[in-house]
User: What shape does this take?
Amino acid sequence: MIKEIREPLIFEISGPGKRAGELPALDVPEKAGLLAGVPLRRELEGFPEVSETEITRHFTRLSQKNYCVDMGLYPLGSCTICLLYTSPSPRDRTRSRMPSSA
Assistant: This one.
């Protein structure tokens, strides 16, 4: 039996204070009234805090749970079935060369 390893949710990997990246400080003057009247959030409650490496590894592992053409063979059988019905078998070829007995 194949034991499948459970991938934890991104919220389970989360830890306080982890960050994926930080933006550099502004190097242009800030416009004060540009977003006046637009409700903005500084923090999101319950939003996962994970590092960039953890995010990349998490979603890579999730993607590998799906079938990937680069990782293996997916035999549908349609090519084989097509060949069985379109190409004559060796037995049929030898029968066609035999003189008819009629």
